[in-house]
Amino acid sequence: MRNTFNAALLLSVILYSCRVQLAGQNHPRKEAREGVALTYFGAAGWEITDGRTVVLIDPYLSRINGPAPPGGGTGFTLPGDKRRTYGWHDPAEPDLAAIDAHVRRADYVLVTHTHYDHVLDVPHIALKTHAAVIGTESTENVMRAYAVPEDQLITVRGGEDYQFPGFSLKVIPSIHSSLDHKHYFSSSTTPAGLKPPLTLEQIHTEGGTLAYLIRIQGHKILAFGGNNYIERELTGLEPDTVLVGAGGSRKEIYDYSGRLMRALHNPPLVLPTHWDNFLAPYDASQQPALDALKSFIEEVHAASSQTKVIVPKYFEPIALDEPAK
Ligand SMILES: [Zn+2]
Ligand SMILES: [Zn+2]
Asked: How far is the centre of ligand 1, averaged over its atoms, from the C-alpha of 325 (Å)?
């Protein structure tokens, strides 16, 4: 892919439609004290905070030059990229400096599934912040391998609806993106008793996939970690904000955006997630991914003309409007 490592280019290309709103550059993260703000970390990673409680979703800051998902070839070699490359049998080594630069505190970490672009950084974040890690048994077994204390681990399977201080969380059964032109399938789960260092392959056992409905300060935020969903599980959720997987594999799914918008009754705000090339460093151009995102935005608007789509910029908080009373 074309690559200039030019951050300015990345920042300049996003606005191409008057219906696409730019992320809230007037809301520096430190000042997001009033209301709820969401900050994109790339891949499927987000921070959601009301200034008191910090909830992370699939936080992945390392962006290692790792192997591509099934059917994605052998990964990308970007011109000028000096990072080491990782294979499936290499030890999983998060970029601690990258994590520490962007994650200062967290109270809860929600993990949608146990793939390395969702879970690689979570043990370090959990050990550093003492956040509770909410995820499948597969995800929690990765945490156990890295000696995250048992009292921080909340194992879920989908269907739970939990009250926590400051927010509540409904765990939604879901399914993984249809990778490799529908040939991807995994029923494997990370076993208990693994000893570090784990290989990338060992932290890439899907273990089932979940979505999450976060109710906070009058908002209902539905977060997906990939490009698929179980339509009947969305009945009655009525979110005002949805993090929707907007990667290319959604095109394997029948009427992906249309069925989703109808099932959710035309949510006011959609934030595309997992649309960028997460094998590229943060300062690389995401132009091909941004170009590909146009068709997603068109799909959403065709299905739900009043839905606003905001293309997130890395690390720029998006402040939500006050919830309707
Ligand atoms: Zn995955
Ligand atoms: Zn992923």
From this structure: 36
